[in-house]
Write a structure and sequence with these properties.
With 363 residues, the protein is an alpha/beta fold. It has ten helices and 15 strands. Helix 1 crosses helix 9 and helix 5 runs parallel beside helix 8.
């Protein structure tokens, strides 16, 4: 595989390392020469032990066009659609767009979906947690009805964003990037949308269908140039009537990344980072002894597994069935867009998937 990565920030470095671990050729591109130098001198060596001389660093306007198997878009969300559309036009085997896929106004989302399909290019969205071993294990248990018929589902992704800024020390704070601007895809609702995405995945694995109703309470912070949600609480309902809750925030310390599916005969829990380097799935029947399934991993492992998943999906000829397919990622974007509309109007917002990935799908 030959890979081109747009964005020399934290995600770009993770994807570069994952690609090199798999033996793939890598070009990292960025509009800022300082970002490329920071990758070579600081970020990559600090994380992975030393700089990999096989990685090419290129200013974006000087990068080759065409000839790549995989193009990754690891830039801020408000640049995703423009870069992803251009990437599809290069006709690689696949494009990977970091989450969230786009901005909450859904600009160009349907255009990307249509163009990718017409060009025959598989597009994925970087919700790496949903293809992690622990999430896949819980999804399998739900599909097998291990806890009986699903009655309700909660997923939380509560994490103070100090860790994000520690990984990006060149940023002075939220206002200095998209993170401090919900309209650009930041804030808790966008940045920590792993929870909404995981909720959708678990619900679908259990046969609950897609989210069609969103009632949201968001706590917006408007300070200086910043305008973002620090707390995001969603009550959701699927097309089958399954109801549950999604919580995302940027204030919780220590971190809590957790999900619980309550079934008629038991419960299943997903705990990310239950201990350092360990995820856990708890299978707890109403009668009987709970069983723990432990998954050991590192943060780089998340991205290695994500790229292996993409490679396998391409090899198997079924990328559209992937839980990180563009369609699934844009379904999460509809939930994000509905959350902001619900919070700002004070009413429940419905999603009509027949209308596509456009604002008119929300009512």
């Amino acid at each position: 595989m030959k890979t081109k990565i747009f964005g020399a920030g934290s995600i770009g470095n993770h994807l570069a390392n994952a690609s090199r671990t798999l033996g793939w050729a890598v070009d990292i591109c960025d509009i800022d020469p300082k970002a490329l130098e920071r990758t070579r001198r600081d970020i990559y060596p600090a994380r992975y032990g030393k700089w990999d001389e096989a990685i090419r660093l290129l200013e974006s306007d000087k990068a080759p066009c065409g000839g790549y198997d995989l193009i990754c878009v690891g830039t801020p969300p408000d640049s995703h659609m423009k870069l992803a559309l251009a990437a599809v036009d290069e006709k690689p085997r696949a494009v990977l767009v970091e989450k969230p896929a786009c901005t909450p106004d859904l600009a160009h989302a349907q255009e990307l979906f249509d163009r990718a399909r017409s060009q025959g290019v598989a597009v994925f969205v970087g919700y790496d947690h949903v293809v992690g071993e622990a999430a896949e294990t819980m999804g399998k248990l739900l599909a097998e009805k291990t806890a009986g018929a699903l009655e309700t589902l909660d997923v939380e992704f509560r994490e103070h964003w100090g860790g994000i800024f520690a990984a990006h020390p060149w940023l002075d704070g939220p206002a200095d990037s998209y993170l401090g601007h919900w309209q650009r895809g930041g804030g808790a609702c966008g940045e920590h949308s792993h929870a909404a995405n995981l909720w959708q995945y678990f619900a679908q694995q259990a046969g609950g269908g897609r989210i069609v109703e969103v009632g949201a309470t968001l706590d917006y912070v408007r300070q200086g140039k910043s305008d973002y949600d620090r707390l995001c609480f969603l009550n959701v309902r699927t097309e089958s009537g399954l109801t549950g809750r999604v919580v995302q925030d940027v204030v919780t310390r220590p971190t809590r990344k957790w999900g619980r599916a309550q079934g008629a005969t038991g419960a299943i829990e997903w705990i990310c980072g239950a201990e350092p380097g360990k995820d856990v799935v708890v299978n707890a029947p109403v009668s009987g002894t709970p069983g723990n399934i432990e998954v050991r991993k590192t943060r780089p492992d998340d991205f290695i597994r994500e790229l292996r998943h993409i490679d396998a999906a391409l090899a198997g000829g079924s990328p559209a069935k992937s839980p990180i397919s563009l369609e699934r990622g844009l379904e999460t974007m509809l939930v994000i867009a509905a959350a902001h509309r619900s919070a700002q109007t004070g009413r429940v917002v419905r999603i009509d998937y027949n209308k596509g990935f456009v604002p008119e799908a929300l009512s």
